[in-house]
From TrEMBL, chain A:
This is DUF485 domain-containing protein. It comes from Streptomyces alkaliterrae. The keyword Ligase does not apply. Coiled coil: none annotated. The lineage of its organism: Bacteria, Bacillati, Actinomycetota, Actinomycetes, Kitasatosporales. InterPro entries: DUF485. It comes from the Bacteria. The chain crosses the membrane at residues 81-98, 118-138.
UniProtKB/TrEMBL annotation, chain B:
This is Cation acetate symporter. GO terms for molecular function: acetate transmembrane transporter activity; symporter activity. GO terms for biological process: plasma membrane acetate transport. Belongs to the sodium:solute symporter (SSF) (TC 2.A.21) family. The gene is actP. Keywords: Cell membrane, Membrane, Symport, Transmembrane, Transmembrane helix, Transport. It comes from the Bacteria.
Length: 165, 533
């Protein structure tokens, strides 16, 4: 999936920043700079044109990309993080909500000598866990799948453009 | 609240200044327009992540949060905090499962994401309808808030003042949207986000300075002056009455956390940046801003309880909506002093700016749903459709404005925070299941999508109609009637699972099966960004 040379496209310089993949860099990837082929019409192919031979070929490209090991790996890494992370934060939030209704006396139990109790700490904990998970996700996305996804994008667009001709 | 002439004059001057700035932005944006859908719905897609992050925060932090949540905390302590927590945690769902994938697959609306793999016409009609319903509910909440706020701040109990405030807000939002499109709307959100954050930071610092920077003594004083002691900092004051109100609390909590990712005006914000990674960065900006803002609403709420006392807050407005303006007046030196007058007027003007900006964002999203989804599917196709579609969107904004004004006047006695909770519940029931199924479930079919949207939307709306919000209680829209057979105010705990269940049933019973090729296209595009608009 990385044989860009065969398509004769001008490959952009490697988007490598100080922290691995640099998300600021690909501001340029929107096609404004002109080097990135904008393959199928944005928003998908309109239904009226979905039966033409060009569309079938583009569909074959998407199927091939989807079945490629590179894409499978990107998808696996993405899902292996976001699904457990979603389950974890939703579970922790539901625990916070349900405990407040089912066991308010537990939430009212004081911590230390002051006015602080378990419920207040749990509420603050939600803020902390949100910040932590955001940081983890962004960091991971940058290191674990951004670059691979970017390569696949480049490759897929070149191939679907070829198919549309 | 009795206001002397100086308060009113200063508040009006600041209101007018903000309106002048926003109209200037609108004029500037409309002079550069070319009339393309890209420009009208998505502002040309050239906003930076930081700009979009501020705009998202501006779209999301409504007056209901600034005034309503702080007020609820000032009155009920701990139970008010659930709004602050729920509104923030919801963003994790947007960050992890929605923002980047939606940016990669879609163009302008939620339906654009779905039609990459589902049949276009029925799906557009379904999600267009649900998006309009969600937006109108949310708009009504903001309109009611605007009427109440302006009437309170101008110190007039006169219902004519409220009526004119609602009409004025409606007229202004139509002007912003139909003339300025997404570009004007976005810049208005950014200006508003700066004002709101600035105001919140200033008040928070002033509150903390009163307590020598010690939040523990702030909490102790709040508990003491609330008249409830330790109970003020524990759950139960607002929702602990009986089993029904506890269930309502859970229902609201679930709706808050799942609704955000289904709000059309939030989803459409991701289309204003060039790439999925820019969308991710905008969410990170938004989470930072929104998280610190909701932390500050907690400080302000407990600060109002500690410095003013819950009874003083309740005496001024039984729903607590004036807690923050009163707190500002107190921090500035008290009623009658120059400092108190200035701070009060500034806070009032910020709250007003907040409402104007939020309604503009929602109006734009709903006019996009009408023109891009409903009109484009129902009307016959023409060669010049893109230009005509934008014209339809501009007209749709006028219609939405009129509907929101009418409903806003009808619902004047409803609690703003509850109305917002309803909009979130409908969004979570009708829009979230179909979005997640489309992005993550291989076998999902068009029939499943239709079942999911209508199977979430219809129960949510019907349960609201049958709830005590509409009839059978003194605060209801129709207090004289009583057909409230559903006890909960918020339908989320029932209607959200129904939306997911309907989508699942509709899909597994569909013998045609999913389109493998188009599922491949959706998945590849969502994760890599190939062919993104």
């Amino acid at each position: 999936m990385t044989q860009h040379g065969t398509y004769g496209g001008t490959r952009p310089p490697e988007p490598q920043g100080a922290f691995g993949f640099d998300p600021w860099y690909d501001e340029l990837a929107s096609g404004r700079e002109g080097w990135l082929p904008v393959a199928p019409p944005p928003g998908g192919v309109p239904e009226s044109r979905r039966n033409g031979p060009a569309y079938d070929e583009a569909g074959a490209v998407y199927l091939a990309v989807q079945r490629s090991p590179e894409f499978q790996e990107v998808r696996r890494r993405h899902r292996r993080f976001v699904f457990p992370a979603t389950a974890a934060f939703l579970g922790w939030y539901l625990l916070y909500i349900v405990t407040a209704t089912a066991a308010p006396e537990l939430m009212a139990r004081p911590v230390g000598a002051g006015p602080v109790n378990v419920g207040m700490l749990a509420g603050l904990g939600q803020f902390v866990s949100t910040a932590l998970l955001t940081w983890l996700y962004v960091n991971r996305a940058r290191r674990r799948w951004d670059k691979e996804a970017f390569d696949l994008r480049w490759d897929t667009q070149l191939r679907t453009r070829g198919a549309a001709r | 609240m009795s206001l002397d002439w100086n308060h009113q004059t200063l508040a009006l001057v600041l209101f007018s200044a903000f309106i002048a700035v926003t109209l200037a932005i609108t004029t500037w944006a409309s002079r550069r327009r070319q009339g393309s859908p890209e420009e009208f719905y998505a502002g040309g897609r050239l906003f930076s992540p930081a700009e979009n992050g501020f705009a998202i925060a501006g779209d999301y932090m409504s007056a209901a949060s600034f005034l309503g949540i702080s007020g609820l905390i000032a009155l009920y302590g701990y139970d008010g905090m659930v709004y602050s927590v729920g509104f923030l945690v919801a963003w994790l769902l947007v960050l992890l499962l929605a923002a980047e994938l939606v940016r990669n697959c879609g163009r302008f609306t939620l339906a654009d994401v779905l039609v990459t793999r589902l049949r276009e016409r029925p799906v557009r009609i379904a999600t267009g309808t649900s998006s309009v319903v969600v937006s109108v509910l949310y708009l009504v909440a903001q309109m009611v808030g605007a009427g109440t706020l302006v009437a309170l701040l101008l110190g007039s109990a006169d219902s004519a003042v409220r009526t004119w405030a609602v009409i004025a807000v409606g007229a202004l939002m139509v002007v912003y949207v139909s003339c300025g499109g997404m570009r004007a709307t976005t810049w208005i959100q950014i200006v508003k986000a700066f004002l709101l954050m600035g105001g919140a930071i200033a008040l928070t610092v002033l509150v903390l300075l009163r307590f020598g920077g010690d939040p523990i003594s702030l909490l102790s004083d709040a508990a003491e002056r609330s008249g409830r002691g330790e109970d003020f900092l524990a759950p139960g004051l607002l929702f602990g009455e009986n089993l029904v109100s506890r269930l309502d609390f859970i229902s609201l909590g679930i709706a808050l956390v799942l609704g955000t990712a289904g709000l059309p005006h939030i989803l459409s914000r991701f289309y204003t940046v060039p790439t999925a990674r820019a969308a991710r960065r905008s969410v990170v900006w938004a989470i930072c801003l929104i998280g610190s803002f909701y932390l500050m609403t907690i400080v302000l709420g407990f600060g109002a309880a500690a410095l003013l006392g819950s009874d003083t807050v309740r005496a001024d407005n039984s729903a607590g909506n004036t807690a923050v303006p009163l707190l500002a007046q107190y921090l500035g030196g008290g009623a009658g002093t120059t400092g108190g007058t200035v701070l009060f007027a500034v806070v009032a003007a910020i709250a007003f700016a907040t409402i104007l900006a939020v309604v503009a964002g929602i109006t734009l999203a709903s006019s996009a749903a009408i023109a891009h989804d409903l009109y484009a599917s129902l009307a016959r196709r023409r060669a010049d459709r893109p230009v005509r579609e934008v014209a339809v969107a501009r007209v749709a904004a006028v219609g939405i404005g009129a509907a929101a004004i009418g409903l806003g006047l009808l619902a004047q006695n409803l609690n703003v925070a509850f109305l917002v909770g309803l909009a979130f519940a409908v969004a979570a029931s009708a829009n979230l299941p179909v979005l997640l199924f489309t992005l993550f479930w291989r076998r999902f079919t068009t029939r499943g999508a239709l079942w999911s949207v209508y199977g979430g939307l219809v129960p949510a709306v019907v349960l609201v109609v049958l709830s005590p919000v509409v009839s059978g209680s003194p605060d209801a829209i129709f207090p004289a009637l009583d057909f409230a057979v559903f006890p909960l105010q918020n339908p989320g705990v029932v209607s959200i699972p129904l939306g997911f269940l309907a989508g699942w049933l509709g899909t597994i019973g569909d013998r045609t099966g999913a389109d493998v090729t188009r599922h491949a296209e959706t998945e590849v595009r969502a994760l890599t960004g190939a062919g993104a608009a």
